[in-house]
Structures are given as C-alpha cells and as structure tokens.
Amino acid sequence: MASIPVSKIWGIGTRYAGFLQKHGVNSAYDLKNCNEKWIRKHLGVVGERTVFELRGISCYPVDDNPQKKNTICFSRSYGKVVEKYDEIEQATINFAVNAAEKMRRQKSVATAITVFVMTNRFAKGPRYVNGITINMPAATNHTPEIIHHTVVALKKLYRKGYKYKKSGIIIKDLQPESQLQCALWDEKDRERLQKITSIVDATNAKMGKGKLKYAIQGSKRSWKLRQDKLSPRYTTNWDELLDINL
Q1: Cα gap 241→231, rounded to integer Å
Q2: What is the per-residue pLDDT for 116?
Q3: DSSP bridge pairs for 239
Q4: Is 229 helix (H, G, I), strand (E, B) or coil?
Q5: Hey, CA dihedral for 96, 98, 102, 105, is it positive or negative?
Q6: At the top level of CATH, which class does the domain 72-177+189-207 belong to?
Q7: pLDDT tens digits for 98-150?
Q8: Was domain 6-54 assigned CATH 1.10.8.100?
Q9: How far apart are the first and last CA of the chain?
Q10: Hey, where are the domains in the chain?
Q11: What phi-psi label fits residue 166: left (phi over 0), alpha (psi between -120 and 50 degrees) or beta?
C-alpha cells in the first residue's frame, strides 16, 4: 500500500488528493492509518468508507442479483451533421440492434419503443427535435421486429431540410422474458424466432461483434462518431497489438 499514490485510489479525486498530500497523506498506507473522524470531517462519508475499505472492512457489498433495467436507451451523436434520410435510418437501426441485444442479455422483452431525432441545439440554423412512441402488438426482444417499428417511427419523424446531429431509441416497459404474455391475435412463431436470434447472438459472441448483421444496418458508416482520441486497446484487441521490432 505504501507504493500506491493516494491519487490512484478510487473515490479520491484531484482536489482531495492535493488536500491529503498537504497534510502528509501521500499513499494508500497513509490513508489507511488516518483518523476516520478527521477524514469524515474533510472528505465526507465517502472518504470515511474508503478508509474502512483499506482496512479490510467492507462498506460496498457485492450485489449478486443486480436489478434489471426497466428501460434501455441507446443513442449517439453523429460524427458529422447528417441530412439524408438513409444515413439517419442506418445509424438509428444500428442503435436499435445494439439495444435489442442488450435487452436479450438481461432476458427481457419490451412492449414499447421511443425513437427520437434532433439537430444540434448549439449550431446556427433551423432546429428540430421530435420523438415517437410505438406500442408493439406483442412484447418482444426479436431484433427484426424492433427494426420494423424503428423504421415506421423514423419515416414519420424525418423532415427534409434539417441538419441532424443525433438520434436514438429507448426500449420501454421491460418485463421478464419468462413471463411473456402473447397477444391474442399474434400469429408469429415466437419459438422459431427466438432460436434464430439465439444463433445470431451466439455467432457474434464467438466470432466478434457484428459478424452477422442485418442488411439494413449497412456497411459504410459515414455518420459514425469520431474516435480520434480513443485509447489504444493493446491487450484486448487483436488488431491493436503492439508491433515490436528487435
């Protein structure tokens, strides 16, 4: 602990680290041996809990059964302003696919989705923000159904002549997959659809995200968010492994 700077401890920001160093607390070991009442006075209850954690006293128990989300939102700003409907549709469909995958991972189904689009509120020129909520005929986590309703919403939302900066989808009213209540007039073979979706998810999990995708997702993503300052992934991505010349 003596070799770990106090600034590297979770919960100790730059300001608190500077304050502690002024009072001779330079390492995790020093913080561990601080008077907890003094810490609470100057760093609050979070700081006091940090001291107890360093002493081996658990203040943040591990939740083995985290509560499932009631809504899932997937939205991104575009890398450039977008005016064409096709680009907005492609971007939003990709968001919808990711949201549907996330929903299946927590074994939930949804009965409604909200799709929204917006221009840059800080830019000059005409502004437009709008969203539509669609109640689906039956609760589902099947990606093609989510895509279909997303397209229906987008065609109603799109207005020509605006420069769009962002869009997204919110999957709402989630309920457990095991408690799925089918609609009276639902004629879809839910068991077959679930098997197909499971195969797609399993293939992408094994071969890499996006190896299997729907044609409407497209291949050229001119709208994609710029990631010029993205941190290198030397240890988690094969394409970014370091090349060492001896």
Answers
A1: 13
A2: 95
A3: none
A4: coil
A5: positive
A6: alpha beta
A7: 999 999 988 888 889 999 999 998 888 899 999 999 998 888 889 999 999 99
A8: no
A9: 36
A10: 6-54, 72-177+189-207
A11: beta
